[in-house]
Amino acid sequence: MKENLSSWGDAMICKNSFSILSNRFSLVYKTLFYVLVVALVIVALAAAMLLPTLSGIVDSLNGLDLAGKIGDYLNKVFSGQVDAAEFESIEALFADIGRVFAENTSKLILAGVFLLLLYFIGMFLISMCYYSVSDVIDAYMNSGSNFPFMSNYVHNFKTSAKFALLYTLINIPLQIAFMLVVVGVALLFSMVNIVLTVFLVSLLCFCIFAINKCMFSLWIPAMVVGNMSCVQALKYNFKTLKSRFTSLFGIYFAYGLLMAMLFVSSLVVTFGVGTLLLLAGALVFVRIVNMVAYYHINGLKYYKADNVVIDNSKKFSPSVYTADEAEVAEHYHLPAAESAAPEEEKASGSEEAEEKSGEEE
Questions:
Q1: Percent of the chain with pLDDT over 70
Q2: CA 305 to CA 357: how far, in whole Å?
Q3: 3-state class of 8 per DSSP?
Q4: DSSP-assigned letters across all residues of 73-103
Q5: Which long-range contacts (C-beta less than 8 Å, at least 24 apart) are formed by 328-336?
Q6: Distance set, CA 302 to CA 172, 282, 295, 326 (Å)
Q7: Closest by CA position to 303, among listed 145, 91, 167, 100
Q8: Taking a C-beta distance cutoff of 8 angstroms, is the pair 4, 243 a contact?
Q9: Measured between alpha carbons, how far apart are the two ends of the chain, in Å?
Q10: pLDDT interval class at 125 (50, 70, 90)
Q11: CB within 8 A of 341, min separation 6: which ones?
């Protein structure tokens, strides 16, 4: 029986997602290693593409002594010593910058194309791990198994590549559109009040983050659990979200706020070291939330911890119970279910034989 998400169900999804993350936290370290490898690849490609293109522009800008002149101007602004000559000098500086850019227009366009290409490659490579991470999580939720990440990544490489390509082609135009909306709102309200602008832009960014995460939340779970093709799963995702978008949006909005606070705290406390682990943990946690939401929506049982199962077959209140190995094996059609009954018969038979021999003696 399928269950509609409610505020109580949202809390269960978040709580159980954290429980699964804590029990499969080793997956975060593996994901972190993968993200670092992708980052190194992107840095190497950026150096190969951008350095030859922008080297001439950088040399020209260095010759203008930008840091020194702008620093002196700001010092005089804050000390109240700015006069007409200073305005003229800073105006001439920006004119020189514009001249450098005008002389290198073709190089700037080429650099922009390279940046867009690098962004595409980076998103494609990062999203390549989404399917494997979700499949490893599903194995744990489905049967309590701990499958290795890299072997799963290699085994599902073709499926992951199909998903990552389609996801990147859809997501990049969406993100560009979202960015234009944010810039437009910022420019519009900046003429009214700067504090109001910062508040509205921040609120809009959190809303866009939640919308973006929610829009594709059931895509991979439908592929992994439902064994749908990439396109079929995408259609299922949009169809199912029509009635559940608000609930999932609330989850991801709250998650975005929490991540922003943790991100700033990790930068201050760990000087950016813990931020890398936080980003990898966020990637895994989003996949877990998506899987848990799919299981709840479709009324499926799943492990939230070792030997602890959530039963979503109840319409209003999913129950939590300790799983008996034979019962779980039978439910998921595992080999243990087939061997459980004969072993019990053998055990009972041996007990009866011992009792008979005792009576005869």
A1: 82
A2: 44
A3: helix
A4: HHHHHHHT---HHHHHHHHHHHHHHHHHHHH
A5: 328/143, 328/144, 331/301, 332/142, 332/143, 334/143
A6: 34, 21, 7, 15
A7: 145
A8: yes
A9: 56
A10: very high
A11: none
CA dist., res. 347 & res. 326, Å (int): 15
3-state secondary structure 150-219: HHHHHHCHHHHHHHHHHHHHHHHHHHHHHHHHHHHHHHHHHCCCHHHHHHHHHHHHHHHHHHHHHHCCCH
- Strand order of the β-sheet with 302-305 is 302-305, 308-311, 319-322
State how far Cα 103 lies from the chain centre: 41
Task: With residue 310 as reference, give the H or E element that holds it.
Answer: strand 308-311
**Residues recorded for the chain:** 361
| Cα 25 to Cα 4: distance, rounded to the nearest angstrom | 29
User: Does residue 311 contact residue 320 with C-beta atoms inside 8 Å?
Assistant: yes
Nearest Cα residue to 43 out of 128, 123, 118, 120: 118
Question: Do β-strands 308-311 and 302-305 pair in parallel, antiparallel, or remain unpaired?
Answer: antiparallel
- The identity of residue 50, as a single letter, is L
pLDDT digits (tens, 9 = 90+) for 245-267: 888 999 999 999 999 999 999 88
